[in-house]
Amino acid sequence: MSNSKVFNKIKYKKGNYEKELLLTLYKNLLKPRMIEEKMLVLLRQGKISKWFSGIGQEAISVGVTMALNSNEYILPMHRNLGVFTTRNIPLYRLFAQWQGKASGFTKGRDRSFHFGTQQYNIVGMISHLGPQLGVADGIALASKLKNNKEVTAVFTGEGGTSEGDFHEALNVASVWQLPVLFCVENNGYGLSTPTKEQYNCKNIADKGVGYGMESHIIDGNNILKIYKKVSKIAMSIRENPRPVLIEFKTFRMRGHEEASGTKYVPEDLLETWGKRDPVVNFETFLREEGLLNENIETKIKSDFINEINEHLEVSFNESEITPIETIELDDVYKSFDNQTTKKSTNTQELRFIDAISEGLKQSMETHNNLVLMGQDIADYGGVFKVTDGFVKQFGKDRVRNTPICESAIIETGMGLSIAGMKAVVEMQFADFASSGFNPIVNYLAKSFYRWGQKADVVIRMPCGGGIAAGPFHSQTNEAWFTKTPGLKVVYPAFPADAKGLLANAINDPNPVLFFEHKGLYRTIREDVPTSYYTTPFGKASILKSGNDVTVISYGAAVHWALETLTNNPEIDADVIDLRTLKPLDVATIYASVKKTGKAIILQEDSLFGGVASDISALIMEHCFEYLDAPVKRVASMETPIPFAKQLETQYLPKTKFEKALKALLSY
Ligand SMILES: Cc1ncc(C[n+]2csc(CCOP(=O)(O)OP(=O)(O)O)c2C)c(N)n1
């Protein structure tokens, strides 16, 4: 390599490796280094944008990738170019990805290493670092359930180990004995933060004990040691599925990202670690062993230079992406045949909760790749008993009690989806989705748009107030999610709808937030078809027809509106139950408002930024000429939801609705 001052400081044990393998290791090590050196030049010329350098850390990416079989998933981070090159991804595709061109992996929608590819069994990161770890749990869970004896390897930096996702993912993997290789690249700095400000124990590997997990420390610059040890560990995991934590000791030789420099890194550290360069040292070793000489080296390097230049030319010659709105919009959701299936004529009167339970059970019977996860959902049947008796019918593999960790379990759902399975995750209360917010809005929601990977996950959300349960067991937080492109949001008000919509949500390959109002669980009942059936999304139901006003609502508030109208039979209203908030049935809303000329929207959530506000704006924009009065929104107070019954009653909009409706009618 170019740095001739570097000494051989790494001691290699050749063992009985074949010459061919040693040369393959060398070539795989050299390739990302040569690409990076070229990228640094292009970066200085302003021809590519961002770059996170893995120089000095290549042995880890290459060693781990070579120790795994090509059908096994790897989840790399931002410094793992060697994973991509060792899996032989054509370079022009990588270059196109970094230039935001169409033949990259994200159609210009995401940058650098933020992509995955099923073709190469690589699942790239999202910027938030930690979620990778839980996603690996999901892929590994699928392997374990399929008994396919595969290992999943996931990377993180030592900085990423400070995130809650690390703790959650390792804990889940250990409790469930999942075949995951957690690879921590401890490279001394997380951006400018040195390890002593990142964690307060000697080795990250020491944390394995706390998780009940085998752990190892490996010299992250010694390709032979890495390859040998990881191969052995991977083989053992395939036979005896379990998670293993590996801390690779290495060093980040360049700035966090290329432009930011290394001013804060003491010179002597760079010098010491510079002597341990994984490429230079291995090259020297191979020369000493007589496996490399100047001729062979020159040939290998000039072949790489030619390959890099040829592929760069292809990517530079590729034209820039032409933005087309419809293409972008069409790729937010995976297409799905959203059909109504036939219902049986046989019906049975069911409470709201029983209809949900039956819908879930019939979906478990329909999809044998469907896994349920949630706190206390197995033998205990869930706190609301929706999954009561499920373990007996479907077994504990498919009806899984989870530790108390929303993030890792939602990430596990994502991993199951990547591995071709389906997941339903029960939030014990919808309020706790805040503890899994990041994977929902950043991982599940954006995955299909970013790299075409479906997120076949339904999150069940027992929600809503009126039961004096206070600020953390009563929220109806649908507006946290309707804001985010990529999510679907379903919110039924009646048992038959709940059953059919849940079955549809499970069929739909897109991520669905399924809101179940707790107040309806045991109070609302109706005749429900006994067979399996699906109810399509994006179709509101018209509960009552009238000419004077359009009442729009969803969830428990639908029943409050109906009650008000029952008490005021002289009011001639159209009543629309939205059923799904995303997609929203705007056609039904507009047709009704154009007929009645007046609209009132009743929502249980507090007012500002809620669904009612958007519906109001849509009506203004699309039906203005038909309106005889301003659109009225009725919602809860702008406070958290309080506990004491009389405070909660004041907070909720139920009693305010009648007055507002009458005021609108007399406008
Ligand atoms: C949740 C989150 N917080 C902060 C950042 C900004 N950030 C990106 S990489 C990074 C440092 C990561 O350090 P480490 O995990 O050790 O990996 P390294 O970059 O050293 O390879 C930071 C702070 C982020 N991407 N995500």
Note down, in words, how this protein is organized.
- The chain is an alpha/beta fold and 667 residues long.
- The protein has 24 helices and 21 strands.
- Helix 1 packs across helix 11 (294-317) and helix 5 packs parallel to helix 6 (164-175).
- It starts with 18 loop residues before the first helix and ends with a helix.
Number of helices: 24
Q: Strands of the biggest beta sheet: in what spatial order?
A: 10-9-11-12-14-13-19
Indicate the low-confidence ranges by residue numbers: 1-7
The small-molecule ligands in this entry are: thiamine diphosphate
Question: What spatial form do the alpha-carbon principal axes imply?
Answer: elongated
Summarize the main sheet.
7 strands, mixed
Mean pLDDT: 96
Helical residues, percent: 40-55%
Residues in β-strands, percent: 5-15%
Q: How many individual β-strands?
A: 21
CA-to-CA gap between the ends? Answer: 82 Å
Structural class based on helices, strands and sheet pairing? alpha/beta
What is the quaternary state of this protein? single chain
Q: Measured on Cα atoms, how large is the radius of gyration?
A: 29 Å
Compact description:
The protein has 24 helices and 21 strands.
